[in-house]
């Protein structure tokens, strides 16, 4: 008899396994009341319109009011967003999210005059203001970052127009999200135990790790059959998104969307091009690893759905959620007592939404704002992969924790460019911890394989995504239509170049772009690859020279956006304008690949 496993409804999930959003707002009514209060603050800030140049004091007051309103908006937004993500099919949550999104757009439009007006202050005058008023000093880097945009800010009228249209610009990614998270219905398939399970994004990842090739094949084919059915819709949403990026870059006077995205954090484009060329010159290592995979799995044909199953068979390690919490704390011990005490705080105070339920957003993330807990969303399954996800998201949340507790609001967030370093350093530390802890060659092999797969998925795969992203942005800028066919055609060839001849380039993989949410994030993915490589360097430093490296590392976690990302990382010990850190990461990959081969 086969048992049908269905996901629980949201209200069937045990409270202890859900996040506590009442720490942001007691209830929806409180969120609505907060919106009312924002309206009042807006009227105070509007009194300064046109008067910013008059004195350093009016400049200071406007900056402080603007930041206070921003922080209020963030609280309201994150409350609505997390609530919606926990149950995307709940109409009440959807309605609140919609309402909040348009409220935020509305308020942004009302404040859109501020930045252009600050930027219109002549440089000498701004310098004089800062020199004569000590109260402005904590905002000097904030003003410096704003100056970077000087040549790219439009008139107040145009800025207001753009800000008011922001929710329209967001439609493509919003439609993608709704289709991907709630409307797509996946069929039932058999898992390795012969049970009938409903395919979902979380379940797909688990099934692809199955040691039974037929299970993997079915999951792969069934999943792509669903996506392919909607490929033209996905092409339309992705094309719409790319047009927003290109249009925005163009009207703001950037060379292209990539320059626009990277210049926000003063990151030179060579960081991107260095990554792509370094990865391409090390594709031989990926090909070697993939061929090894084929040999060990003893398969006549290695398919795309065979790339995620552990080469070393079924996992010798599996963790219930409570076991995973213990293991995570031990692995992160190297970061010090203080760090681990905050990890415990996350476990004890319901910062984490743990298990999957009907309508819950797929994947995992860490999210919170200045003044809220750094929450985490998981879709827990009892395996090693999920332990890695837990320490990954914990890395983000601890980064947020340290930043918001050590910086003022204006520097209390951090650029995405440095964000993935905090999370993947934890993954690297967990890898080293497990390799040290276990002598059993079966376990060592499994962990090494996990690392090699992680490197493949983060450094190689995300750079592959980055190349695709570059292609679609360029094609659109050149006036080519982004149809499903042309994108699939490019993607298929790109995939073959990355994985080489040892893998069958299954036709379904051409459509992989349809299901990658990150293509809607605007030059986001390359940062996973650069971040992982930098993290590899940092974790290595901490395991070899401990306390000094740890202190530098914690300093990076505490820095927030008080300096430009590349400077923050330089102080932590990695110069990301050079290629050394990438070379180091590939050297580690090669070393562990050799270890892996030797153990076999
Ligand atoms: Zn992450």
- What is the structural class? mainly alpha
Question: Major sheet: order of its strands?
Answer: 1-3-2
Rounded Rg: 24 Å
CATH first level of the domain at 10-169: Mainly Alpha
User: Might you state the CATH topology name of the domain at 10-169?
Assistant: Butyryl-CoA Dehydrogenase, subunit A, domain 3
Organism: Pediococcus cellicola
Function: Has oligopeptidase activity and degrades a variety of small bioactive peptides.
Family: Belongs to the peptidase M3B family.
Pfam families: Peptidase_M3, Peptidase_M3_N
What does this structure look like?
It is an enzyme of class 3 (hydrolase). GO terms for molecular function: metal ion binding; metalloendopeptidase activity. Residues 207-587 form the Peptidase M3A/M3B catalytic domain. Has oligopeptidase activity and degrades a variety of small bioactive peptides. The chain has 600 residues and is mostly helical. The chain has helices spanning 28-46, 56-86, 91-111, 114-119, 123-132, 140-148, 156-164, 166-169, 171-183, 201-208, 213-229, 231-251, 257-263, 270-281, 283-297, 321-331, 337-348, 384-406, 416-437, 441-477, 484-499, 526-559, 565-572, 580-599; strands at 4-5, 188-190, 196-198, 302-303, 352-353, 365-367, 375-377, 503-504. The chain has a domain at 10-169: Up-down Bundle (Butyryl-CoA Dehydrogenase, subunit A, domain 3), CATH 1.20.140.70. The chain is built from 24 helices and 8 strands. The chain is globular. The two termini are 39 Å apart. The mean pLDDT is 94. Bound molecules: zinc ion. Zinc ion (ZN) binds next to helix 18 and helix 19.
């Amino acid at each position: 008899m086969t048992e049908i496993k269905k996901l629980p409804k949201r209200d069937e999930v045990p409270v202890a396994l859900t996040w506590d959003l009442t720490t942001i707002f007691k209830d929806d009514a409180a969120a609505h009341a907060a919106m009312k209060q924002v309206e009042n603050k807006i009227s105070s800030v509007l009194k300064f319109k046109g008067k910013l140049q008059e004195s350093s004091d009016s400049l200071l007051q406007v900056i402080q009011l603007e930041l206070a309103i921003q922080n209020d908006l963030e609280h309201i937004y994150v409350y609505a967003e997390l609530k919606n993500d926990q149950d995307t099919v709940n109409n009440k949550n959807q309605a609140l999210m919609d309402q909040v999104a348009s409220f935020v757009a509305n308020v942004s439009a009302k404040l859109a005059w501020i930045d252009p007006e600050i930027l219109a202050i002549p440089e000498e005058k701004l310098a004089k203001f800062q020199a004569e008023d000590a109260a402005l000093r904590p905002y000097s880097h904030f003003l410096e970052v704003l100056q970077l945009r000087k040549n790219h800010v439009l008139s107040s009228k145009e800025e207001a127009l753009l800000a008011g249209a922001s929710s329209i610009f967001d439609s493509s990614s919003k439609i993608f999200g709704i289709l991907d998270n709630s409307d797509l219905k996946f069929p039932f398939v058999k898992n390795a135990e012969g049970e009938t399970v409903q395919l979902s994004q979380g379940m797909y990842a688990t099934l692809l790790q199955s040691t039974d090739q037929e299970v993997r094949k079915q999951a792969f084919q069934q999943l792509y059959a669903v996506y392919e059915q909607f490929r033209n819709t996905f092409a339309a949403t992705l094309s719409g998104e790319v047009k927003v990026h290109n249009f925005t870059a163009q009207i703001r006077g950037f060379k292209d969307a990539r320059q626009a995205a990277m210049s926000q954090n003063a990151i030179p484009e060579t960081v991107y091009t260095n990554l792509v060329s370094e990865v391409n010159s090390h594709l031989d290592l990926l090909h070697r690893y993939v061929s090894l995979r084929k040999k060990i799995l003893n398969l006549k044909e290695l398919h795309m759905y065979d790339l995620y199953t552990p080469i070393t068979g079924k996992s010798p390690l599996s963790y219930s959620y409570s076991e995973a919490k213990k293991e995570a704390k031990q692995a992160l011990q190297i970061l010090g007592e203080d760090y681990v005490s905050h990890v415990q705080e996350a476990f004890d105070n319901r910062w984490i939404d743990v298990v999957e339920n009907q309508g819950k957003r797929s994947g995992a993330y860490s999210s919170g704002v200045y003044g809220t807990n750094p929450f985490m969303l998981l879709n827990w399954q009892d395996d090693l992969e999920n332990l890695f996800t837990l320490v990954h998201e914990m890395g983000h949340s601890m980064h947020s924790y340290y930043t918001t507790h050590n910086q003022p609001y204006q520097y209390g967030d951090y650029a995405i460019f440095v964000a993935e370093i905090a999370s993947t350093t934890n993954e690297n530390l967990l890898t080293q911890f497990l390799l040290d802890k276990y002598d059993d060659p079966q376990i060592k092999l499994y962990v090494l394989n996990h690392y090699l797969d992680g490197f493949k998925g983060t450094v190689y795969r995300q750079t592959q995504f980055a190349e695709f992203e570059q292609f679609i942005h360029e094609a659109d800028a050149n006036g080519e239509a982004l149809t499903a066919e042309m994108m699939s055609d490019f993607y298929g060839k790109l995939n073959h170049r990355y994985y080489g001849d040892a893998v069958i380039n299954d036709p379904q993989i051409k459509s992989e772009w349809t299901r990658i949410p990150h293509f809607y994030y605007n030059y986001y993915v390359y940062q996973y690859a650069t971040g992982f490589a930098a993290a590899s360097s940092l974790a290595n430093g901490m395991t070899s020279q401990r306390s000094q490296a740890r202190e530098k590392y914690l300093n990076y976690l505490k820095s927030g956006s008080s300096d430009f990302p590349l400077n923050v990382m330089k102080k932590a010990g990695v110069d990301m304008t050079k290629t050394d850190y990438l070379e180091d990461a590939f050297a580690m990959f090669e070393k562990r690949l050799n270890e892996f081969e030797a153990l076999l």
